[in-house]
Amino acid sequence: MAEAHGYQKPLPVPDEDSQPFFQATREHRLMIQQCRACGTAHWPFRSRCPVCLSPAIDWVQASGQGRLSTFTLVHQVAHPGFACDVPYILAEVDLQEGVRIISTIVDCPHAELYIGMPLIVTFADSTDEISLPVFRPAPGAEPGYSGERE
Amino acid sequence: MNLRGACAIAGLGMTRMGKVYGRSATDFAVEAVELALQDAGLQKAEVDGLLINTNMSREMNPQLQRALGLENLSLLNAMNAYGSTAGTMIQYAAMAILHGLAQVVVLVYADDPLKPARGAGASYSGAGRQSGTGMAGLPMAYGYYGANPGYAMAARRHMHLFGTTSEQLGAIAIAQRAWAQMNPWAQMRTPLSMEEYIHSRYIAEPLRLFDCCLVSNGGIAVVVTSAQRARQLKQPPVYILGLGQAAPGGFGRADREPGIYTGARQAGETALRMAGIELRDIEICELYDCYTYTVLVTLEDYGFCAKGEGGAFVEDGKLGPGGSLPTNTGGGELSAYYMWGFTPLSEGIMQARGQAGERQVDRHDLILVSGNGGVLSYHSTTILGTHPA
Predict the structure, then answer these.
(1) Smallest CA–CA distance from A40 into chain B, residue
(2) For residue B137, which residues of chain A lie inside 8 Å, CB to CB?
(3) Is B360 on the interface with A (CB under 8 A)?
(4) Are A40 and A54 in contact (CB under 8 A)?
(5) Average of per-residue pLDDT across B189-214
(6) Is B144 a catalytic residue?
(7) What would the pLDDT profile of A20-65 be if each residue is shown by its tens digit?
(8) Which pLDDT tens digit goes with each residue over B279-297?
(9) What is the CB neighbour count within 10 angstroms for residue B242?
(10) B140 CB within 8 Å of a chain A CB
(11) pLDDT the model gives residue B118
(12) Is the CB of residue B163 less than 8 Å away from at least one CB of chain A?
């Protein structure tokens, strides 16, 4: 299917544990896990809460709001699927719910990225089966701020 | 029962390292152990402990005992704390010897990650369409491969918080290359200028080519014994004075700074306390340098300077030859050889013994050796000395 759509990058293969996450991303919803016992949110999938170790875990929908904690522009081509994209953004995003996730930023020139910028989730429909959560500048992100670039 | 000065490093063996092809990790390991035993003046039959640094090679597992033909071992383990493993191996060996579990422990690192050049297609073979199963496959789907992005993001955050500059990271690379020029073991022996550093290609911004360590084939083995036994053997004993370890966690949580405040602080305090010395007593640092950034943040966390001031601390060249804090005096993993934690450990041993040749530092009685692994996730500290107390 990847070839038919021209999508050249590698994609995760959902398994039983992660199926709720990938099903939701196809529907453009970002799911994180929350512990019923202590209320802490975590990501990625874990069968037990990493804070209180309880197995009482629920999938919950995240607001999608977050802030850019840090980022890099990758110049190395580690997989041929990324050859046309270098340099591309990798980001650590702090979600409002208190978890930090790896993702990328879209709809933002590299020079306008800045640590602390507010972000909102959106979804990249890579194939018919897999959509990936990505982030774009949220309303209120200051355009044109390039203090982080040398 | 005090560990300080109770044990010592009695043997060091190093194979040819770097772009050395046609040999397996096991072959490097066996040669390194042979050299280490010869260096110490020990017979193989006296070895009763074997500790193996696990790495990218599948051969680095307890079955290495068979290739070495070691029998009647009372201590055997393949250990894994990534880049901090070497320090933890020293810890385990010393504690075992102190309590009579073993008397002569061999520690070994060997790997053959470099293969002869082959076509780009071949090197991508297996890259494939799948990035992994489940949510563990997500990072690679975004293009997060290997260790570079994590360290790059930590360095970027440090620059944001404290104004650290690329030139300051470059000062570390330049100082280490100056040491490497005097090291016959080093892979990179041409001088590195700031201009060359700044114009080197980006790997993952802000990290450039010369911010990132080498990759090397080869092996290093170290022999640890009681201090008393070491004094009977061929080399000047390198006493193990202080040990520490830390894994602070905190990854995956928003508003935490695990890439900024590392386990070096706790591991360093523990090791200094055990050694009964102050930080200012340290004369040489051998710091795990998978990236220039790890040297900078480790210096801060040990307390050589305040948090955030690592850039200013290094930019005057004090880490280099003639400087006030000789650091990575063989060139480190950036310029000499990449044997994970055995890189700083081996150089620390040679300096302590007074066997570092042209790059020998005059004051070499107290040496601080660090290890870090994961992305600044796991930390070990070892303090070596020329006197047991």
Answers:
(1) B253
(2) 10-13
(3) no
(4) no
(5) 98
(6) no
(7) 999 999 999 999 999 999 999 999 999 999 999 999 999 999 999 9
(8) 999 999 999 999 999 999 9
(9) 25
(10) yes
(11) 54
(12) no
Comparing alpha-carbon positions, the chain A residue that sits nearest to B158 is A70
Q: Which residues pair with B339 in a beta bridge?
A: B341
Residue of A nearest to B202 (CA): A75
Q: Across the interface, do B160 and A13 touch by the CB < 8 Å criterion?
A: no
3-state SS track over chain B: CCCCCCEEEEEEEECCCECCCCCCHHHHHHHHHHHHHHHHCCCHHHCCEEEEECCCCCCCCCCHHHHHCCCCCCEEEEECCHHHHHHHHHHHHHHHHHCCCCCEEEEEEEECCCCCCCCHHHHHCCCCCEEEEHHHHHHHHCCCCCCHHHHHHHHHHHHHHHCCCHHHHHHHHHHHHHHHCCCCCCCCCCCCCHHHHHHCCEEECCEEHHHECCCCEEEEEEEEEEHHHHHCCCCCCEEEEEEEEECCCCCCECCCCCCCCCCHHHHHHHHHHHHCCCHHHCCEEECCCCEHHHHHHHHHHHCCCCCCCHHHHHCCCCCCCCCCCCECCCCHHHHCCCECEHHHHHHHHHHHHCCCHHHCCCCCCEEEEEEEECCCCEEEEEEEECCCC
SS3 (DSSP) at A93: strand
pTM, full prediction: 0.96
Beta strand residue intervals within B18-103, DSSP E: 49-53, 75-79
Average pLDDT over residues B236-263: 96
* C-alpha dist (Å) from residue B254 to A136, B73, B258: 18, 46, 11
Residue entry with tokens 């001031």 = B309
Q: Which is nearest to A141 in space by CA: A69, A90, A67?
A: A67
Half-sphere exposure of A56 (CA within 13 A, CB side): 8
**CB count in 10 Å sphere of residue A83:** 12
Put simply, the answer to whether B204 touches A72 (Cβ < 8 Å) is yes
Residue B236 is given by DSSP the state: P
Residues from chain A contacting residue B253 (CB–CB below 8 Å): 98-100
For range B325-337, the mean pLDDT: 98
Flag if B145 and A78 touch (Cβ within 8 Å): yes
What 3-state DSSP class applies to B187?
coil
Choose among A109, A106, A111: nearest CA to A91. A106
Phi-psi domain of A93 (left: phi exceeds 0; alpha: psi -120 through 50; beta: other): beta
Question: Taking CB atoms and an 8 Å limit, are A10 and B152 in contact across chains?
Answer: no
Two tokens, residue B198: 């700044």
Please name the residues between 45 and 74 in chain A that touch chain B, using a CB distance below 8 Å. 45, 50, 66, 69-74
pLDDT of residue A143: 61
Q: Is B202 among the catalytic positions?
A: no
